[in-house]
Design the sequence.
């Protein structure tokens, strides 16, 4: 035991392979690494390659060991012919192979680093089953959830919902009233607003629901669960789980020792938009981004393009190459020429935190993914909400009904957000001083929580780092 004490702590971080999961665990890893603790960050091979390509593409230094963080990868268990976009297949494969791959990896690390064997595994709750190997490998298991505390509370409530026959096998609400409430202080979940909701694709919803059932097991077994939130933002939801450790908002450290620009991004961040923002007046630009997964019909993209144009405001729009239901977007006739004078800027992927913190940004038109929500809250920008699936609907309810820092962009009876609705809501949000003032108050709370010595998230993080150092 005495010799073990002399060993240095070493964290193995294991995300679920999706951008919205890799990003916050990367930020957490960088913070841990900045406190002098080694972190080995494990992606599956194809995600690892994407990150290296997008981050180190122009770097002469091809050493992917950033200060205190080693980036490594394991196979996903699929064959070269398998479709890696088939989420069902991928999850099945990971469930069957990941624990063994990690056991081999940890065995190798421990043999090669006798002074720094893996002492803790931090796993995303969606791959929480890998924590079964932690004890066997002599490491402390820690769970990380990249979603809200309310989202976690809802997921952990599933057994009661199933027992009460409120949900069918797809996780669809089948009883009246069709809302679920955990407290009068947390916005209720509508029937299609659950963390696993995907009403337009019930097959996908079933997969998300099964992942949530796995998360129930992991969440109930975990000694503590790190969460990218802060107490003042979600105090009631935080109080629902005594094992929850709110350590957010997780942001890219501005003065990090663990590689300055490393963000775990799967796509190259186009920094040209920052210079473009510099050329715009303060609080003038609409920043439009739907994260890494949301896709739209061409008709909806046309309405969005024309709505942005109608608003008369400058806009920065993130248009991924797969945003038109997997294909490249087309633009309304003459649109690109008309915005070419400088009113609009379109990029495939941006350094989102830097954009949101830019003084030219007036509001954030977002799908309300939890990372984007936390980033927007931390930068004090008012929101325009356009959720796509899963927890994004509940995050929208938080933004609009609880925190009162944004407005909804509503769909018409055909499910389309019209150009006029988009234009009107842009005008309303940019003209609303209360929304901006609430957003700035929220920003203060966010920064206090993770940035000041008395901040609750910072204290929780320090406690966690101390614990890691004692392992
Ligand atoms: N993001 C980015 N550049 C972009 C758009 C998004 O770096 O142009 C990042 C964003 O900052 C966030 C993540 O991608 O950290 C998206 O996560 P979120 O939970 O918001 O949405 P998801 O992609 O999971 O739907």
Sequence:
């Amino acid at each position: 035991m005495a010799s073990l004490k002399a060993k240095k702590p070493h964290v193995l971080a294991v995300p679920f392979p999706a951008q919205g999961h890799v990003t916050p665990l990367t930020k957490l890893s960088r913070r841990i690494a900045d406190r002098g603790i080694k972190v080995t960050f494990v992606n599956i091979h194809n995600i690892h390659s994407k990150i290296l390509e997008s981050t180190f593409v122009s770097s002469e230094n091809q050493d992917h060991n950033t200060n205190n963080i080693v980036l490594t990868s394991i196979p996903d268990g699929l064959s070269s012919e398998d479709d890696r976009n088939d989420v069902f297949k991928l999850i099945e494969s990971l469930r069957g192979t990941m624990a063994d791959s990690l056991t081999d990896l940890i065995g190798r690390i421990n043999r090669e680093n006798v002074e720094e064997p893996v002492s803790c595994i931090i796993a995303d709750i969606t791959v929480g089953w890998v924590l079964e190997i932690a004890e066997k490998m002599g490491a402390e298991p820690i769970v990380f959830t990249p979603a809200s505390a309310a989202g976690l509370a809802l997921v952990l409530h599933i057994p009661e919902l199933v027992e009460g026959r409120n949900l069918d096998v797809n996780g669809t609400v089948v009883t009246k009233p069709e809302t679920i409430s955990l407290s009068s202080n947390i916005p209720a979940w509508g029937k299609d607003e659950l963390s696993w909701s995907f009403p337009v694709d019930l097959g996908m919803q079933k997969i998300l629901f099964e992942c949530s059932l796995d998360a129930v097991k992991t969440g109930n077994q975990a000694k503590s669960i790190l969460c990218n939130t802060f107490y003042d933002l979600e105090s009631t939801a935080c109080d629902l789980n005594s094992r929850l450790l709110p350590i957010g908002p997780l942001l890219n450290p501005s003065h990090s020792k663990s590689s300055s620009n490393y963000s775990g991004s799967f796509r190259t961040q186009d920094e040209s938009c920052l210079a473009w923002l510099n050329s715009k007046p303060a609080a003038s630009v609409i920043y439009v981004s739907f994260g890494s997964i949301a896709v739209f019909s061409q008709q909806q993209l046309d309405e969005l393009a024309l709505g942005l144009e109608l608003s008369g405001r400058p806009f920065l729009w993130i248009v991924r190459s797969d945003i038109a239901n997997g294909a490249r977007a087309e633009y309304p006739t003459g649109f690109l020429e008309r915005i070419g004078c400088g009113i609009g800027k379109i990029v495939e992927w941006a350094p989102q935190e830097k954009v949101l913190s830019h003084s030219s940004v007036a509001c954030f038109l977002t799908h309300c993914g939890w990372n984007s929500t936390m980033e927007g809250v931390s930068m004090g920008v008012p929101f325009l909400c356009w959720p796509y699936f899963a927890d994004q609907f509940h995050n929208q309810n938080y933004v609009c009904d609880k925190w009162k820092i944004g407005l909804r962009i509503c769909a018409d009876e055909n499910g389309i957000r019209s150009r006029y609705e988009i234009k009107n809501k842009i005008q309303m949000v940019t003209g609303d001083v209360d929304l901006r003032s609430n957003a700035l108050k929220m920003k203060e709370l966010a920064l206090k929580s993770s940035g000041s010595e008395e901040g609750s998230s910072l204290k929780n993080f320090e406690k966690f780092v101390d614990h890691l150092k004692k392992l």
Observations:
- The first helix runs from residue 2 to 6.
- The pocket of uridine-5'-diphosphate is lined by residues 19-20, 23, 265, 269, 289, 291-293, 318, 349-350, 352-353, 369-372, 375 (CB under 6 Å).
